[in-house]
Amino acid sequence: MANSQHANFDAVIVGAGFAGMYMLHSLRDKLGLSARVYETGNGIGGTWYWNRYPGARCDSDSYVYCYMFDQRLLREWEWSERYPEQPEILRYLNHVADRFDLRKDIRFNTRVTEARFDENANRWTIRTEAGEVVTAKYFIGAVGCLSASNLPKFKGLETYQGKHYHTGHWPHDGVDFTARRVGIIGTGATAVQAIPVIAQQAKRLTVFQRTPNFCVPARNGKVDPEVANARKADYDAIRERIRNSSFGFELSFIEKSALEASPEERERTFNAMWDQGGFSFWLANYQDMFFSKEANEVCAEFLRGKIRETVKDPAIAEKLIPKTYLYGTKRQPLDSNYFETFNKPNVLLVDVNETPIEEITPRGIRTSDREHELDIIVFATGFDAMTGPLKKIDIRGRGGQTLSRKWDDGPHSYLGVAVAGFPNMFTITGPGSPSVMSNMPVSIEQHVEWITGCIEHMRQHGLATMEARTDAEAQWTAHVAEVANASLFPTADSWYLGANIPGKPRVFMPYLGGVGPYRQKCDEVAAKEYEGFTFTA
Questions:
Q1: 302-306: long-range pairs with CB below 8 Å, 24+
Q2: What is the C-alpha separation between 355 and 58, in angstroms, rounded?
Q3: Are 381 and 494 in contact (CB under 8 A)?
């Protein structure tokens, strides 16, 4: 039965992951506002609530993949590994929810279906799937960048008699692969984590690959207690460094061209980064790697050599080597024994460029050359990134304009945090901000704190609405594209451009200008009385 309960809040927040939890804490506990969070799941955690597939873990170092706004919180939590697994990150987020008593203002198992701006009242009316209607002065999307899962339309899927799962909606009690014939479709960052784990359990694992990936080793493990203690003693400085960095890590590029270094020097540098593991090969390499095809090729050739060295069968190694895009222009997966897994006798690699998937049958997957009988199919087919989660909600601004229609040709935003025509609406790590091109908690904290500052400014000055100007939005959207187009990133068919979703406009969605310069720009906008925004009294 529809819930007709009406309530009025200062703010409604959609999503209870890293972003929604901190937004709630900031508005409620720092500004004293009334706020409600709506969350589709039955617990907090966002990405870490939904993504429970085998091998799911963070690929940012744990000491920076956490909240930094509270010193006591930083000091009291001990991470067990360099890259914590999903259950540990979820425990951490539950600890934060307990510590700040967040759950009392979160409605779980509740999907927001509609948000409309009422121009007479200057308030948002928000509706849920269950029929609840509430109003709020501020509407804040904390929906995450990778929360709208993508399941391509495979002919015959409804006839399949085995079990199938999408990695982004994994059963909470897990899946037992023991003695099962398993197929996995996709070889992106998620599959790179899942494949080695599934291969250890399954009777046979068939990997259906369209686009191979350049992977670098994670080098996960326990963190030396002395290193952990030194970091805790230095957290203020670490926080400043990552807030002013390019990508939200303690990583910076080598300030010379890859082509200036001798082959011997490059080899030493590459091997050191390879042995170190993590994102350094991607985000702390020679500074021209993302701008010069020649410099990029030098890095890529080193990685090709590592794949050939690791995979025993030369024919399989060649299939696992990317040939259709430049290194680093797609999301860098970190692996633990990914390439080694293809040396196992129970693992079969199917290149669907050579033998395309024709249909899913009652018994498995039929490619152009044969039928693969499978007990379980895993879809590691990714997400409708960045815009997908927001467009799933019917959001209507001034004049009834829908966000979905406004973004028909790609996202338009000012700073990735506000949209012209949608007053008092904020998007945390929205398209046009560093978001997925950064260590997410760093960018989330910056956005939450900046939005909190906006709302405090409005309260102090008795303002009713705050809205991005159309010209400011157009200039920022053009700037985001200009920065991306100066790099090699747009040359790849990546989900950064929406290339994985048929019909989605090809627009590079995250801002590549760097976490530090972006923060500086946001601070300048605020210092100039929120330049680029209009207010009503």
A1: 302/266, 302/267, 302/270, 302/274, 303/214, 303/216, 303/327, 306/274, 306/339
A2: 33
A3: no
Helix (H, G, I), strand (E, B) or coil at 512: coil
> What is the rounded CA–CA span in Å between residue 82 and residue 85?
10
> pLDDT digit string (tens) for 431-473?
999 999 999 999 999 999 999 999 999 999 999 999 999 999 9
Distance CA 297, CA 305 (A): 12
The amino acid sitting at 204 is: R
**Cα–Cα distance for residue pair 383/311, rounded to 1 Å:** 29
Q: How many helices (H) and strands (E) in the chain?
A: 17, 20
Length of the chain: 537
297: pLDDT strictly greater than 90? yes
Write phi, then psi, for 81 (nearest 5 degrees).
-140, 170
Containing domain of residue 121, as a range? 6-148+385-529
Beta bridge partners of 123: 118
What pLDDT, on the 0 to 100 scale, is given for residue 6?
Answer: 66
Query: Considering the entire predicted model, what is its pTM?
Result: 0.97
On whether both 47 and 138 belong to a single domain, the answer is yes
Same-domain check for residues 354 and 396: no
Q: Are 57 and 85 in contact (CB under 8 A)?
A: yes
Number of domains present in the structure of the chain: 2
> Other C-beta atoms within 10 Å of 151: how many?
14
